[in-house]
Amino acid sequence: MAQKPSLPKGTRDFGPAQMLKRNYILDAIRAVFRKYGFLPLETPAMENLSTLTGKYGDEGDQLLFRILNSGDYLSKTQVSDYTTGSKALTGKIAEKGLKYDLTVPFARYVVMNQHDIAFPFKRYQIQPVWRADRPQKGRYREFYQCDADIIGTNSLICEAELMCIVHEVFDKLNFSNFSVSISNRKVLEGMAEVLNASEQFSTFCVILDKLDKIGQDRVFDELGKIGIETEALNQLDTMLNLPGTNTNKLEALKELFHNSETGLTGVKELEDTFGYINKLGLTEHNLFFDPTLARGLSYYTGTIYEVKPTSIKMGTITAGGRYDNLTGIFGLKDVSGVGISFGIDRIYDTLEELNLFPNENEETTQVLITNFDTESADYALGLLAQLRKVNINSEFYPDSTKLKKQMSYADKKGIPFCLMVGSREIETGEFILKNMSTGEQKSLEFDAIIEELSGI
């Protein structure tokens, strides 16, 4: 009995229709990255476990896919290893793992190649990563990340350029209904100082991050339970509901942060970032200072930002921020960087829901030449070569079978035109070009056919 084919849980096939749409997104992103001076980078699918473990916290370590050593991987184990738990055993039978993200391998690459890299180093990377997570809607065990980072500079011009990249990418994808929330870790630290909650900073941020989900009243209830007093909560209410433009809000925060040097530094960094954004010609119509933004605080040290659609219900589709010591984990200290990551799967779902994918794709076949018999096939192959020479995506049906079957093939592949090349057409020098969507047929000389197809 034949084995029924299956996929590992949490993984997916992408058929031609899906790949054309994914490539449409990725090509747009790559083009913008290159335009801004980013260079491509790839790192291996697997890394040494010593590179990966301890970088993502205990939970992340548990989600690493470990690869069994080749050969007799049990030869170095003892009976006691089986009774002391999986950690002891895993260390002896697995030395490598599939990469969990693109960030840690990037840091490893920078440190290993620091003498060959021109700093600041601008790289982009589009590769799959793997996590042994519980599969569910929108969460997979294998998925793509699409990152761009600038490492080796503290300049806030980089943050402004990344904001320009966001807008240019989505402009290329004809998607404009999004908003960008921007904040700064130092602003959040300043807020905690004003509230006398610096010692509970992590807890404060975790609670504040629930604002969208549970509302301000419940957030304030939780903050009260960790000891933040009513007077301080009144000040927080003021900070969270500042009126006016980004400039107005940042000016107001300066007054509130008059005793917080860290908070004032964060405000200054945001002011400078918005200033650079304006000088680069980007308007602030969908850029919003959001003091509640608390993403990735264990990782980021400065500006943080995230992008969400505004016309549909969807999570974050792009995010990133400034980090001050990414490479420090591998011994290269005090190297600051800033990065951004585009969520390919969510961007795909957004464009699909809003019907923003183009109906035609330049990667698909534009014309199918039909195959009537051996004699016409020999002639048709010459025409096929001429079509391809002028960059018209074209195919020749390889078998001289019924015309209905060849038309069905063209329909199934979404090929817009069929070119009939039979003995009569060869004799007259005029060939029938059939539009598969309308059924219209034209009898044209070959030069006119090239002109017609070139104008698609």
What distinguishing features does this structure have?
alpha+beta; five-stranded mixed beta sheet; 18 helices; 16 strands; 41% helix
Give the SSE map:
Blueprint: H1 16-35, E1 39-40, E2 46-48, H2 49-52, H3 57-62, E3 66-68, H4 86-93, E4 94-98, H5 103-112, E5 121-130, E6 142-151, H6 157-172, E7 178-184, H7 185-194, H8 201-208, H9 211-214, H10 216-225, H11 230-240, H12 246-256, H13 261-279, E8 287-289, E9 303-309, E10 318-323, E11 337-342, H14 344-353, E12 367-369, H15 374-389, E13 394-396, H16 403-413, E14 417-420, H17 423-428, E15 430-435, E16 441-445, H18 446-454
Parallel strand pairs: 1-5, 7-8, 12-13, 12-14
Antiparallel strand pairs: 2-4, 3-4, 5-6, 6-11, 7-9, 9-10, 10-11, 14-15, 15-16
Helix pairs in contact: 1-6, 1-14, 6-13, 7-13, 12-13
